[in-house]
Amino acid sequence: MSQQTLDDDELFGEAATEMRDDVEESLANARAELPPADDVWDVEADNTLGVLNGLRSALDAGAAEEHLRNAKKWYTMGERADAFEDAEDLREAIAEVDDLVETVADAHEQVGALASTIPQLRGALEDAEGEAADDAEADDDADEEDEE
């Protein structure tokens, strides 16, 4: 075997190790950027809309999504180059983080939709209460006229 082949194999091995390290580092960064459980569970506010807005802010997975994308990118490169001796652990870790990021993003979207619905609902309920009060007042006035 020539010296060139040994050097190429050694370089490829180093590159494979670096790719694995990049994937693992990106996954660790993605996990670190996920919202802390307490931030999602413990929200303080004066009203429902404040709670929803606080929760929506806590459910921001933006940076985690970018780190996950980097992990997937380097994993795909390594997989296509057949650089990983055993990539099952990386594949499983990526799937786990991907599920978490997707769940957080879905919850963020749902909370955002609810946060935009609550003020409309409150307004509609206030209008209905006002109409009910007007109807009750009109009924009282009609009853008074009938008694006279």
UniProtKB/TrEMBL annotation:
Family matches, as InterPro entries: DUF5790
UniProt xrefs under Pfam families: DUF5790
Residue stretches of biased makeup (Acidic residues): 1-12, 126-148
Region Disordered, residue ranges: 1-22, 122-148
Name of this chain's protein: DUF5790 family protein
